[in-house]
Design a protein that fits this description.
The protein is of the alpha/beta class. It has 12 helices and 14 strands. The protein folds into 2 domains: 59 residues, DNA polymerase, domain 1; 273 residues, Aldolase class I (TIM Barrel). 36% of the residues lie in helices and 20% in strands. The chain has a 10-stranded mixed beta sheet with strand order 3-4-5-6-9-10-11-12-13-14. β9, α6 and β10 form a beta-alpha-beta unit. The longest helix has 17 residues. The model has no long low-confidence stretch (mean pLDDT 94). Bound molecules: S-adenosyl-L-homocysteine and iron/sulfur cluster. S-adenosyl-L-homocysteine binds next to β10 and β12.
C-alpha cells in the first residue's frame, strides 16, 4: 500500500515524535527536517546520509508531497514566474514567484478553485474543486525556495524566500486549519524560517475565521478584500457578503485589530465607473473611520468572465488623495505585474 503520510504536513515536533515512536533518534528527524527545508530535496532518495534502515522505514511510512511542475511561464519583464503544479489527482493549482529588487515573494494557493464566487475573479469563476492539504500548501513554498536556490536571478543573485502572500487560488479562511498549520511550518526557525511579519493572509471576509485569528493571535498580516463600502454594493461583487454582511465584517475587523494591536490591509479592486469615484473613496474613509488601516488599491486585472475594466491611474491617484487628505488613511496602488502571463491578482484559474 502507498504511504499516506506527507512529510510536508508535519510540524518539526511531530516529525521528531514520529521518529521516537519508530525508536529512532530524534537526531535523524532533525536531519530529515534540514533535507526538507534547507536543502529542499525533491525526492526521498536525496536523503543520502540517512542510515539505510531509517530511510527504508521512512519510505514505507511516508512520502514527500512535492508537486511536479506541469508548466512554467515567465512574464516579459522577467519579474514574475507562474508555476502550474500538479496535484496527485488530475488537478492543478497555481503558485506565483515574484522577484523585485531585494524582495522575493511567493503567492500561494489554499484551495483548488474557490467557492466564494467573486464576480471579477478567475478563480471564483471556475468554482470550487477542493481544499488543499497542509502538505500541499507547504509544498508550494518549498517549490519556490528550491527554484531560488537552483536558479539565481537575472543578476546572478541567489535569494531566499522571504515573503509569502496567501493570495493565490482559494479562500484561506475557508480552509482554516490546513492554512494555519502550514503557516506554523513556514515560520519554523529551523526550516523556511519566515517571519510572521512577512506572511500575509488575504480573506474575502470570512467573519468566523477573522474572529478565530483574533482569538488565537496568529502572527501574520491580515488583508481583507473590501471592494465596496456599502452592503448592497459589496454583495453585488462578492457573494460571500450575503452570508457575512459588511456590518459584521467591520465589527470582526475591529475585534481583530483590538486583540492583536495590528492594522489591517483593506484590498480594493478598482473597477472603472463602479467603485472608483470620489464618493466611493469618501465612503471607504468613513467606513474605516479611526480603525488602524491601510488600503491596497488593485487596478482590475482582466478575466474572461467579467466585462469591467481597470480604473485609470488618475482615478486611483484621486482615490488615494482623498483617503490621505480627508481621512489620514495610507494607501498603495498595487503594481501591475505578471498580467501578460495571467499571474496577476484574480487571474489564477486552471481548466481542470
Ligand atoms: N480569496 C482571498 C485571496 C485571493 S484573491 C481574497 O479574496 O481576499 C487576492 C486579491 O485579489 C483579493 O483582494 C481579490 O479580491 C483580488 N482580485 C480578485 N480578482 C481580481 C481581479 N480580476 N483584478 C484585481 N484583483 C482581483
Ligand atoms: Fe475566491 Fe478570493 Fe477569488 Fe473571491 S477573490 S473568488 S474569495 S479567490
Amino acid at each position: 500500500m502507498n504511504p499516506t503520510l506527507d512529510l510536508y504536513s508535519l510540524l518539526r515536533d511531530e516529525l521528531s515524535q514520529l521518529f521516537i515512536s519508530w525508536e529512532f533518534s530524534p537526531v535523524h528527524a532533525a536531519r530529515v527536517w534540514r533535507y526538507l527545508y534547507w536543502e529542499c530535496i525533491d525526492s526521498l532518495d536525496g536523503m543520502q546520509d540517512l542510515p539505510p534502515r531509517v530511510l527504508r522505514k521512512l519510505k514505507e511510512e511516508a512520502f514527500l508531497g512535492s508537486l511536479p511542475t506541469a508548466l512554467e511561464t515567465r512574464s516579459s519583464d522577467g519579474f514574475t514566474r507562474k508555476y502550474l503544479l500538479n496535484l496527485p489527482e488530475d488537478r492543478k493549482i497555481e503558485t506565483v514567484l515574484m522577484r523585485y529588487t531585494g524582495r522575493v515573494t511567493a503567492c500561494i494557493s489554499s484551495q483548488a478553485g474557490c467557492a466564494m464566487g467573486c464576480v471579477f475573479c478567475a478563480t471564483g469563476q471556475m468554482g470550487f474543486s477542493r481544499h488543499l492539504t497542509t502538505g500541499e500548501i507547504v509544498a508550494q513554498a518549498v517549490h519556490v525556495q528550491r527554484i531560488l536556490r537552483t536558479q539565481p536571478g537575472e543578476h546572478g543573485d541567489s535569494q531566499r524566500l522571504r515573503n509569502i502572500v496567501l493570495m493565490g487560488m482559494g479562500e484561506p479562511l475557508h480552509n482554516y486549519d490546513a492554512v494555519i498549520k502550514a503557516i506554523d511550518i513556514f515560520r519554523d526557525s529551523a526550516g523556511l524560517s519566515l517571519s510572521g511579519d512577512r506572511i500575509t493572509l488575504s480573506t474575502v471576509g470570512v467573519v468566523p475565521g477573522i474572529l478565530r485569528l483574533a482569538k488565537e493571535k496568529k502572527l501574520l498580516h491580515l488583508a481583507v478584500s473590501l471592494h465596496a463600502a456599502t452592503q448592497e454594493g459589496r454583495a453585488a461583487l462578492v457573494p460571500a457578503a450575503k452570508k457575512w454582511p459588511l456590518s459584521e465584517l467591520m465589527a470582526a475587523c475591529q475585534t481583530y485589530s483590538e486583540a492583536t494591536g495590528k492594522r489591517i490591509f483593506y484590498e480594493w479592486t478598482l473597477i472603472e465607473g463602479k467603485n472608483d469615484s470620489e464618493e466611493d473613496a469618501r465612503a471607504v474613509g468613513r467606513l474605516l473611520g479611526k480603525m488602524p488601516a491601510q488600503v491596497n488599491l488593485i487596478p482590475l486585472n482582466p478575466t474572461q468572465g467579467y466585462a469591467g475594466t481597470a480604473s485609470r491611474s488618475e482615478s486611483a491617484r484621486r482615490f488615494q488623495n482623498i483617503l490621505a487628505d480627508e481621512f489620514s488613511i495610507p494607501s498603495t496602488v498595487r503594481q501591475r505585474r505578471g498580467i501578460d502571463i495571467a499571474a496577476g491578482c484574480g487571474q489564477l484559474a486552471v481548466n481542470a
